[in-house]
Design goal:
The complex is a heterotrimer of chains A (292), B (353) and C (382).
Chain A: H1 2-31, H2 38-55, H3 60-83, H4 91-113, E1 118-119, E2 128-132, E3 135-138, H5 139-161, H6 163-173, H7 175-180, H8 185-210, E4 213-214, H9 220-233, H10 238-259, H11 264-278
Antiparallel strand pairs in A: 1-4, 2-3
Chain B: H1 2-33, H2 39-65, H3 72-93, H4 97-123, H5 128-147, E1 149-154, E2 157-162, E3 173-177, E4 182-183, H6 191-210, H7 212-222, H8 224-229, H9 234-257, E5 262-263, H10 270-283, H11 288-304, H12 312-328, H13 330-352
Chain C: H1 2-22, E1 33-39, H2 46-65, E2 71-77, H3 82-94, E3 99-103, H4 106-119, E4 122-125, H5 131-134, E5 140-142, H6 147-160, E6 166-172, H7 176-192, E7 195-202, H8 211-219, E8 224-227, H9 231-243, E9 249-252, E10 274-277, H10 286-299, H11 305-323, H12 332-345, E11 348-350, E12 353-358, E13 364-365, E14 369-374, E15 377-380
Parallel strand pairs in C: 1-2, 1-3, 3-4, 4-5, 6-7, 6-8, 8-9, 9-10
Antiparallel strand pairs in C: 10-14, 11-12, 12-13, 14-15
Classes of the chains: A mainly alpha (292), B mainly alpha (353), C alpha/beta (382).
Chain lengths: 292, 353, 382
């Protein structure tokens, strides 16, 4: 019974990591850049939804849609202003710009919305389903898992079947060759960012619905964990991000429950290193054979 | 013939960097002794040296070996707490500040080198971002272990414990106490000492890069398979670079720790690793001179921006983004280049007229 | 590329050189006594630093409006980091600070306390509660309770009032404040025979999910959960405990204050939560009402204990300065000696307690008030 409830807790936590990781992997897999500002876009999304639902008493759906809209615009703007000028530069240069962007968003949020923590009102309502004594699944978890699966399927279909999706995959393999084939690389990458940022808004809303503490640094640690989850699952693999996220959550809860809360972080990352040693390209990552 | 010439040019460049560094040191020392520099600058001299060592050591991994590391602060942490531990023991037997510090720095460096070897092993199997994640994980592991580490010293000897604080006698003191880290540290680090260590690290790195080993390492970076095919031992060189780089970071950590009366384990977190990476990338991959300048400027920058009060860190972020765009975007670069060229010609015309 | 870099570097270096000397010769001749402090004004801990800064600002404004002795206040950002705190302190020193307000948070304050001790500048920290802050320094004083005080007072209180038979503790193990209270609570609990059935931790990197910690407490049958932590984490714990139908008594410390004014917080979750705190924004005495009103008007939010502590600090310094006849042309060292003498004999009434006195070790003696939250407001427990 204990074991089962830990599994459920693990999945609850993991589903949050997974939904962030899905947005992360979208940008990461296609634009091939570590977008460290992703966690902060999540934070902005959560703030927008918070103000809509708590301050102006709008229905939750309006809050979510508006925060998706704001994040999409923000994502495109960030891409245009900060990343696009560096298309030719090394990926590390873009990484540093992304870090700068992350600092910028955090500090701008602090100036705009102060550093006072805010309690986010869950968009799916409190409560949940009591399966049996001691086994409890909250609505947020159910909604998050459903959202994860829907997003995963939608993204897989989108990148696999549609023209735009194919263009994205082409860009991720070889930008130069894609351009020669008549694909507009800039537009494709902008759209990738738009989708990634819209997903960030959803992730932000669900993150704060599950853990209703909203401060300007809300997104940074989940962002890093999601990045870890995305790599764990295999870079660029959409199902990998989902599995990586959920597994990360389960490992974290198990480490806390069965070993020690004090060193759970060390255990989580230790397991991660071991898994990567056994499978050097993550759980579902493609093995790329190198050529000279 | 040609090869020799370029080599000379590199050597010349290296000497310019070292000479320049020495010159800055002498000037700053004179200003400091003359009481002209402010307390703010005086207080930052040692941390700047420590960050410079961090930057050049990370540049060795990222710029010369070509592997992204997101956990460099982890080595700094090992060096800081390892060094303080040994330094505190040394203080029981010796009164000489410099000797204590010297032993501590060497010990810190060695401990970090050991950690570097340890983390170097997964490096052999992993590439790119997968490797970066392992280094990030390593940094987190170090942080959470130091966070629960308690070491106390009293007349009965050493007490080491995890999670729960050990009981120590009244005559003793805690050297490392969990989340508080090091408290009541004697400030042993001096600007001159930190500078000498920095200079030594720089000389080691320059010699390494210019040696046969260095060329082998860069061959690995540029094309691993080709390098392997001509008989370069990947394992050996990668482990070598990781441990040298870690050792230097460890020494920087010890110097940094001994500059403050308290150091907490959370100081050496992911953000610090990222900060050092920013120094390296901003300064230019593989350019030690760039790393040195970037480390100094970016350490001072947040302090210089205090005029902006609440907007300080916002301005810092904007400056960071603009500098990255300015130095990496061809269009913006051309624009500035043209502007300066025009100014120059205008000046010349004025001079002529 | 190189050229651009050179230009940027040159610009920054010249700016640096300028600032290296700019600090000199900037002496204020306004006849005001210069008070300076450091605190996290940006970053994750900014909420505490901003509150302290604002509380102190209000006090200085009030005092200056009285005429007579004038104060000039300067707060510098330390981002809750010891290294940056020393930088911030050095800036204050360049400004010729005469009295220091230390740092707002513990770890940075340990670092700046070592500096103020070496420089012989008197310091009174509003809220850095670790014992290491004052240990071995004769010129370092605290306005808040020290951590051991809080820990043992809580244990004493729980034992005396028989609030719980089985106690669980959740604390933040990378936070000095939280671990400090935890350690002394445990010592005292052993002494008093309190039955501690579960000890679990969380940290900055994993402060969202408490299902395991609460689950363990529930399984161990704890009827009281002690939460030595700040209110954001406590709010999450209360929320998650309710969702899992776990309703023990919750007992907090002064960091818990602020939970009721948290924007969007469902105060019914905090129903029955007990805490030891020297300050509550709901108190009806004239001083508190006046302060809360002013703070609200000026900054649009309700002050927390950090603001109140900093407000008290400035007033305590004011009182000591008047008694010791401190003037703005004294050196910091002269002021320091006077202040040490005054503070060890001072009896001070403030927002956070009446009849406060300070020992030679710098720790304050004031009585914590036991509070319980009923219908969304604090009610005195006694």
């Amino acid at each position: 019974m204990d074991f089962l409830s830990n599994v459920i807790n693990g999945i609850s936590l993991g589903s949050i990591y997974a939904i962030i990781a899905l947005g992360y992997t979208m940008v990461y897999g296609i634009a091939k850049m570590l977008n460290f500002a992703h966690g902060d876009v999540i934070m902005v999304g959560a703030y927008v939804c918070f103000f809509m639902t708590s301050r102006y008493n709008m229905p939750a759906i309006v809050g979510i849609l508006l925060s998706m809209f704001v994040c999409t615009v923000l994502g495109i703007m960030i891409e245009r202003l900060a990343y696009k000028p560096l298309r030719q530069a090394t990926s590390l240069a873009v990484l540093i710009t992304a870090i700068g962007m992350s600092y910028f968003l955090q500090n701008a949020a602090q100036l705009l919305w102060t550093s006072n923590p805010k309690v986010f009102k869950s968009v799916v309502g409190d409560g949940g389903i009591q399966l049996t004594e001691g086994l409890y699944v909250s609505y947020v978890t159910l909604v998050t898992i459903a959202a994860c699966v829907i997003i995963m399927i939608a993204l897989t279909v989108f990148t696999g079947k549609t023209k735009m999706g194919k263009a994205m995959r082409a860009c991720s393999e070889d930008k130069g060759a894609a351009q020669l084939m008549g694909i507009n690389v800039n537009t494709t990458i902008s759209i990738t960012f738009a989708i990634g940022s819209a997903l960030a808004a959803i992730a932000g809303v669900l993150l704060c619905s599950a853990y209703p503490n909203l401060v300007p640094t809300t997104g940074s640690m989940p962002g890093i964990k999601a990045f870890t989850a995305a790599v764990f699952g295999g870079i660029g693999s959409i199902p990998g991000a989902l599995i990586g996220g959920v597994l990360l959550g389960i490992i974290e809860i198990f480490a806390k429950a069965y070993i020690s809360t004090e060193i759970s972080d060390a255990i989580v990352f230790g397991v991660l290193i071991v898994v990567l040693l056994v499978k050097p390209t993550g759980l579902l990552g493609k093995k790329i054979s190198e050529k000279v | 013939m040609k090869g020799k010439k370029t080599l000379n040019k590199t050597s010349k460049n290296n000497f310019i960097t070292m000479g320049g560094l020495l010159l800055v040191y002498v000037i700053v020392l004179i200003l400091k002794e003359g009481g002209i520099t402010t307390n703010l600058i005086n207080g930052q001299l040692v941390p700047i040296c420590a960050y410079m060592i961090m930057a050049i050591s990370l540049n060795l991994t990222v710029g010369i070996l070509g592997e992204l590391s997101l956990g460099h602060a982890g080595f700094m942490s090992v060096g800081a707490f390892g060094g303080v531990f040994i330094g505190s023991l040394m203080q029981q037997v010796s009164d000489s500040k410099t000797l204590c510090l010297l032993v501590a720095v060497i010990a810190g460096g060695l401990m970090a080198a050991l950690a570097g070897l340890l983390i170097g092993i997964p490096v052999l199997r992993l590439r790119g971002d997968y490797l970066a994640i392992v280094t990030l994980a390593f940094g987190q592991i170090i942080k959470s272990i130091v966070n629960i580490l308690y070491i106390g010293l009293d007349s009965e000897g050493l007490h080491v414990a995890f999670i729960n604080k050990p009981e120590i006698l009244d005559d003793g003191k805690m050297i490392i106490s969990g989340s508080m880290g090091v408290v009541g540290n004697r400030k042993l680090s001096t600007f001159t000492f930190a500078f000498i260590v920095l200079m030594l690290c720089l000389i080691v790195i320059y010699n390494l890069i210019q040696s046969r080993t260095g060329r082998a390492i860069m061959a690995l970076r540029d094309n691993r398979i080709a390098a392997e095919s001509v008989g370069i031992n990947v394992t050996k060189y990668k482990l070598l670079v990781f441990s040298i780089s870690a050792a230097m970071a460890g020494m920087a950590g010890t110097i940094f720790a001994f500059n403050y009366s308290t150091v907490s384990p959370t100081k050496f977190d992911f953000n610090t690793s990222i900060l050092v990476l920013v120094f390296v990338v901003l300064g230019g991959l593989g350019s030690m001179r760039g790393s040195l300048i970037a480390a100094a400027l970016l350490t001072l920058l947040p302090e210089l921006l205090r005029e902006f009060s609440d907007y300080r860190m916002l301005v810092y972020a904007i400056v960071l983004i603009l500098v990255m765009l300015g130095t990496n975007n061809p269009k913006i670069r051309d624009f500035f280049a043209k502007m300066f060229a025009r100014k120059k010609t205008a000046k010349e015309e004025n001079a002529n007229g | 590329m190189k050229k651009m870099k050179k230009v940027v570097c040159f610009g920054l270096i010249s700016a640096m050189m300028l600032s290296a000397f700019a600090g000199c010769g900037k002496k204020s001749d306004s006849g005001a006594i210069r008070i300076g402090g450091t605190g996290p004004l940006t970053g994750g801990a900014a909420v505490y630093g901003m509150a302290a800064k604002r509380g102190a600002e209000i006090a200085v404004e009030e005092i200056n409006a009285l005429g007579g002795m004038q104060f000039e206040l300067r707060y510098e950002d330390d981002t809750h980091d010891a290294e940056k705190a020393v930088n911030a302190y050095n800036i204050l020193k360049d400004w010729n600070v005469q009295i220091s307000l230390g740092s707002v948070t513990s770890q940075p304050c340990v670092a700046t306390a070592a500096e103020t001790y070496a420089d012989r500048i008197f310091a009174l920290t509003p809220s850095a509660s670790a014992t290491d802050v004052t240990k071995g320094k004769d010129n370092m004083f605290q306005m808040c309770f020290s951590d051991p005080n809080q820990g043992s007072a809580s244990a004493q209180y729980i034992s005396e009032k028989k609030l719980g038979t089985k106690v669980a503790i959740i604390y933040k193990n990378d936070d000095v404040y939280s671990t400090g209270i935890f350690e002394t609570f445990m010592d005292k609990a052993d002494e008093l025979g309190i039955n501690v059935v579960s000890k679990t931790t969380f940290n900055t990197d994993s402060q969202n999910d408490f299902s395991v910690q609460l689950g363990e407490a529930q399984k161990a049958g704890a009827d009281l959960v002690f939460l030595p932590m700040y209110y954001e984490a406590a709010a999450l714990i209360l929320d998650q405990a309710k969702k899992m139908n776990y309703a023990p008594k919750f007992f907090g410390v002064d960091g818990m204050d602020g939970i009721l004014t948290l924007e969007g917080f469902d105060t019914s979750l905090a129903e029955g939560v007990m805490l030891l705190t020297p300050f509550s924004a709901d108190a009806t005495d004239e001083k508190t009402v006046n302060f809360v009103k002013k703070y609200n008007e000026k900054f649009g939010e309700t002050p927390n204990q950090f603001a109140a502590d900093a407000y008290d600090c400035v007033y305590a310094i004011y009182e000591a300065c008047q008694k010791g006849k401190v003037t703005s042309d004294m050196t910091a060292e002269e002021v320091c000696d006077i202040m040490i003498e005054q503070f060890t004999t001072l009896k001070f009434d403030g927002l956070t307690g009446a009849g406060m006195t300070w020992g030679k070790n710098g720790e304050v003696t004031k009585s914590p008030k036991g509070m319980v939250i009923e219908n969304g407001v604090y009610v005195g427990l006694d």
